[in-house]
Specification:
Number of domains: 5
CATH class of the largest domain: Mainly Beta
Oligomer: single chain
CATH architecture of the largest domain: Sandwich
Shape: elongated
Largest sheet: 6 strands, mixed
Helix content: under 10%
Number of helices: 3
Distance between the termini: 112 Å
């Protein structure tokens, strides 16, 4: 405890204690000019703050003031901590004995206050003068508050980067606790055995390392509050800086319109690809793709064809801050595709090896079915993608095949191969649903049911066989076989399992086809 006498007592008299009219006790006995021993002032009306579990040292002026120069008999001037309504601790005791006090007497005092003095978290210190043979006189009271420890001081940001690549920010939340006002500093340690050093200028909530070289660097954040009396050190995070190796092995090759690129080596181990086409002199290149391989689009061929001179393609690989350019592929104006012919061999169609184009070809076999009048049934379908086609099947319709060949921006159509229908359907195709006999037979739908009527106009009994077939059925189905009498109508109910589409029928009598045609099921 430090006590300094600022003003000597000039006159000492033995007088009785009496009240000073018009002057309050707190003006008479006062604590003023409070500050922490680190120099931070404690403004009037604010609390003295103590860190939880800690101790603060407070300096102040303790005064007894007798402005009217009335004689005050001696006594004791004290400072107490008020813990609660029933207990206190004395910090300062200045005994004047029986010497009279006149004017103003001020002493500078320093006391230590501990958070354990204030178990409820709040309290006060107050001044008191105890005159001889009289009741104590209370003076100034200053509140005291216990401040909680700093919490939530943690950081995130473990990372591994290559030398020269940017390091991401190390982040952490704004802490809790303290007096709500925080200052930050950041420290780093090189390797596992180094010492912690403070990073100059790093005073923010977050920190972004810069200008780091190959090594393992640890970082932590120091948070202080309550005028530096509370300190919290965060967890550590590690930034690993890997040395870079030269970026190598960037070569490309071409097969037709397909460009293949090698897998690079070195760099950071992560690669970004850029395929560029140079088709206009003194102009920026076209970006074709960003994968390890690339396909030359028709637009490049079209442009080269229209300009009449060569284009060029290369690949740029980027890894970290390194980049390397590949060899160059030349794109010449493409030639027309020639020698695209197909021939039938048994159940296979053999296709010639084309020439022209880019020298690399893709194939597409197309097939469609026709009625005898040339009407196409159900459009054109793609059935194969190889040079040859091996699945020719004869059906009940005329089937036609042709091959399309692609190369660069060129397309070629082959000749067409025609596969005639099965014999039982040949007459239908050639007659186009016209009757092949006299008007002895009439076929028409029943308007009231999902059925077909076969009306016979024979004058005598006849043995007939009515057969229905289609590609959907696979095999011929006999729907009536027997003897019909003159003018008999044979009714055939179309099974519910029959799909919508075109079906064909033939009526046989005496081993001859006497009528053929088609039925459309809707």
């Amino acid at each position: 405890m430090k006590i300094k006498l600022l003003l000597s007592i000039a006159v000492l008299f033995f007088v009785g204690l009496f009240a000073i009219p018009g002057y309050s006790q707190t003006q008479m006995i006062s604590i003023s000019n409070l500050k922490y021993t680190n120099g931070a002032a404690i403004p009037n009306g604010t609390s003295i703050k103590i860190a939880e579990g800690g101790t603060v040292y407070v300096t102040f002026d303790l005064s007894i003031n007798n402005p009217q120069m009335a004689l005050i008999k001696g006594g004791t001037l004290s400072v107490y901590s008020k813990l609660n309504s029933n207990s206190n601790i004395q910090h300062v005791s200045i005994n004047f004995g029986q010497n009279a006090i006149t004017g103003t007497v001020t002493r500078q005092c320093t006391i230590d206050l501990r958070s354990t003095h204030f178990p409820t978290g709040t309290g006060s210190i107050y001044a008191q003068f105890s005159p001889i043979n009289n009741s104590p006189i209370l003076g100034t009271s200053v509140p005291v508050k216990v401040v909680p420890l700093i919490t939530s001081n943690y950081i995130l940001g473990n990372q591994t980067v290559y030398e020269g690549d940017p390091v991401g920010s190390i982040n952490g939340p704004v802490p809790n606790g303290g007096d709500g006002l925080y200052t930050y500093s950041w420290q780093q340690r090189i390797g596992s055995g180094g010492s912690w050093t403070t990073i100059s200028g790093a005073t923010g909530v977050t920190y972004k390392p810069v200008n780091v070289s190959a090594s393992t660097i640890s970082y932590r954040r120091i948070v202080t509050s309550l005028f530096g009396t509370l300190t919290s050190t965060s967890n550590e995070i590690t930034v690993t800086i890997l040395p870079i190796t030269p970026l190598l092995n960037n070569t490309i090759s071409r097969s037709g319109s397909e460009l293949q690129g090698s897998l690079p080596t070195g760099g950071t181990g992560t690669y970004v690809y850029y395929w560029y086409a140079y088709v206009l002199q003194d102009e920026d290149p076209w970006l074709l793709g960003q994968s390890i391989n690339c396909t030359i689009p028709n637009s490049v061929y079209n442009f080269v064809d229209s300009m009449g001179y060569n284009g060029y393609i290369n690949r740029v690989v980027v890894s970290g801050k390194q980049q390397v350019v590949s060899n160059t592929i030349t794109i010449t104006p493409s030639q027309e595709i020639t020698n695209n012919t197909i021939t039938l061999s048994g159940n296979s169609i053999l296709g010639s090896l084309p020439s022209g184009g880019t020298g690399n070809f893709t194939y597409e076999y197309n097939v469609y079915n026709e009625f005898a009048d040339g009407e196409i049934v159900d459009g054109v379908s793609v059935v194969g993608f190889n040079q040859n086609y091996d699945s020719v099947v004869q059906g009940y319709l005329t089937t036609k095949f042709y091959r399309k060949v692609y190369s660069g921006n060129k397309v070629s159509y082959s000749n067409t191969i025609t596969i005639l229908p099965k014999v039982s359907f040949a007459k239908t195709a050639s007659t186009n649903n016209e009757e092949t006999a006299s008007g002895d037979l009439t076929v028409y739908p029943n308007p009231t049911t999902e059925s077909v009527n076969f009306s016979t106009n024979f004058s005598t009994n006849k043995e007939i066989d009515i057969v229905v077939y289609s590609d959907k059925l696979g095999n011929e189905k006999s729907v009536f076989k027997g003897t019909v009498t003159p003018n008999q109508v044979v009714n055939w109910n179309i099974p519910a399992s029959y799909q919508k589409g075109i079906y064909f029928y033939k009526i046989l009598s005496g081993n001859k086809e006497v009528k053929t045609g088609k039925i459309i099921v809707q």
